[in-house]
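user: Please review this fold.
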Amino acid sequence: MTARAPLVDLDGAGRTRDRYRGALLGTAVGDALGAPFEGHRGPVSAPQITSVELDHRPLRHTDDTAMTIGFAESLLYVDGLDQDHLALTFTRHWEREPDRGYGAGTASLLARLSGGTSWRHAAGAQFDGQGSFGDGAAMRIAPAALCAAGDPALAAHLARRSAVVTHTHPLAVDGAAVQAVAVATALAHSSKGNIDPFAFLTEVRAVADQELLAQRLDLVALLLEDGDVANEDGKLGTGIEAHEAVPAAIYCFLCHPDSFRDTIRLAIGLGGDTDTIAAMAGAIAGACLGERAIPVSWVDRTQAAPAMRHLADRFVARRLQARDRS
């Protein structure tokens, strides 16, 4: 196990790096820890989660992390968002590693893009022309918050434009924007862990254009008021739909805003789409609490950790350069 650096106060640049790394590492760690339980019906028991935590084998990531890496690479390469480049980057990642657990709809879409079909046609044609309302656009969205330097409005704008490359249904686009704003709000928060959950919910709910998603976020507030930190009645939902998975991830973070470990354990414990909910909850918690809050044993085992650190540091360098030019 690698020793963690002493917990000392960081300067501005150090804090930024810690939180940027936390957002991306949080995505990968949550994804990899949640992956063994994906699709689990009902709650996952604490002993089951502990068995994965204590295992010494490497933690392999899924498409959640693969697409997050692709999104980050594209944003950095073009210094912003280019939808054509993003579609090409996603396709190339899928071609290299198609066995990362891509959902059937996304795999079919990327196969069509690989064959030369335009993303504009392929994405909109999914599900009889309605487009996908899955959580695939939201699960990968943390880099939008980093590219936006914690600006919620810009993060939401990047999220919506990036979502439609693969997910055109309004609920999926909305879910991506809400998740991006959640990460951006956590990233910009002045005090790690000292979160007012209802103020946080107000920030993210303001982005939701779709009533179904807004209602789910209202339900999060009700569950928090009731102290239902286990979602015992299953009211929130933990499916692959954006309007279930995104509120569930935000809920897990707001139940434990001062503990990355407890956020991830709750996200997995709820069952359902465990890898994606834990990846999104991990992105928010990591953005708020920083890399140093993530258990070092989890990071050491996460295969994508070096890539995530490198990408986060490139976003930090980009932010510092922009500041120096202004």
Q: What stands out?
A: The chain has a mean pLDDT of 92. The two ends are 42 Å apart (CA to CA). Residues 12-34 form the longest helix (23 residues).
